[in-house]
């Protein structure tokens, strides 16, 4: 905006200066040229009178005598009645020379010439102040335009920065009041949006906290019940083993509730540690294999060399659980999960043999969306968990449904903003 305002003001100054200065320059040039012609005309008359008087007094006309009558840049040629020629000055012959010729009463002629280069020099000297004034006006307009544009653009720059803070989830934006009506309207709208978003997020956090608290109580009670049942004398060893396995699942559910609650409150999800993603994925696949067997589906882990990441393990496991559950419920055919090291990127891939029918907008859909084809809030939470890890979750550009969890390699900055550069479906699986 500032550059455009300066360009407009400078353009207007150049246009106005040209509309006034160019005709004025031509007028000055014509005036100087006319003055030079009049000066040569007067010189010719003066020299003709002097030569006539000298001839009447029978005094000789010499070159030195004629040279004393000349001005700068002039030359004279005297043709006597006896056709003798006397010249003085430096004769210059050019198309722009000013020449005046007089016929003398006693016979003979005298011709005065003034150099065209001298005339052009005097024209340039007369026009130069006009050019300098025009350039000074343009420079002054540029300076004033820059200061004015800076003053006008500053509120909008502050408003853009405030909008960027709102987009990043910072709602404590303080905006000044502006004298520019348009900027003040935008500022008032941003203040209202900041307040409303702050209230909305606060309500959501309170809701998440209440839900988490309500879930913890029955989960804890259920775990105590299972633990009690596992220690009954009537409980067979096989049933006790199943109950113990159920208690571990309840513990994992309790940890997931705590981590999601911390995520809703903007807290850290724990301390990052060095993790082998292939090993973590193998444990998750082993845990999900009985569910796939019960559903008549195949789940395979594509083992490769160890893929090390510096992340918080809990959210990674939760994302994998969501992806494997989604593939089991909504996918078809064999499901393959694997981890790959892509240099600055680490990919955790979960793919099935079903045709891809959704796009990256599936990460923003809710559970009750009838167009979501059953993909609900789980993928949205998984995407948020991926962002909290410094990565992102995306659908790969592949004919089958392939989800890719992209994480930063150890020593690489977060890749959340990298998702905007790659765009949806731009993950390379090669």
Highlighted features:
alpha+beta, Heat Shock Protein 90, 15% strand, single chain, Beta-Lactamase, 3 domains, five-stranded mixed sheet, 9 helices, 430 residues, four-stranded antiparallel sheet
Description:
This protein is of the alpha+beta class. The protein folds into three domains: 2-126, Beta-Lactamase; 181-264; 273-422, 2-Layer Sandwich (Heat Shock Protein 90). It has nine helices and eleven strands. The strands form three sheets. Strands 6-8-9-11-10 form a five-stranded mixed sheet, covered by helices on one side. Strands 2-1-4-3 form a four-stranded antiparallel sheet. Strand 10 (392-395) and strand 11 (400-408) form a beta hairpin. Helix 1 runs antiparallel to helix 3. 22% of the residues are buried.
What's this, in brief?
The chain has 430 residues and is α+β, with helices and mostly antiparallel strands. It has helices at 2-56, 63-67, 116-167, 181-230, 237-264, 277-294, 313-330, 377-388, 418-422, and strands at 74-79, 85-89, 98-103, 109-114, 273-276, 299-301, 308-311, 335-341, 345-355, 392-395, 400-408.
Write the layout of secondary structure elements.
Blueprint: H1 2-56, H2 63-67, E1 74-79, E2 85-89, E3 98-103, E4 109-114, H3 116-167, H4 181-230, H5 237-264, E5 273-276, H6 277-294, E6 299-301, E7 308-311, H7 313-330, E8 335-341, E9 345-355, H8 377-388, E10 392-395, E11 400-408, H9 418-422
Parallel strand pairs: 6-8
Antiparallel strand pairs: 1-2, 1-4, 3-4, 5-7, 8-9, 9-11, 10-11
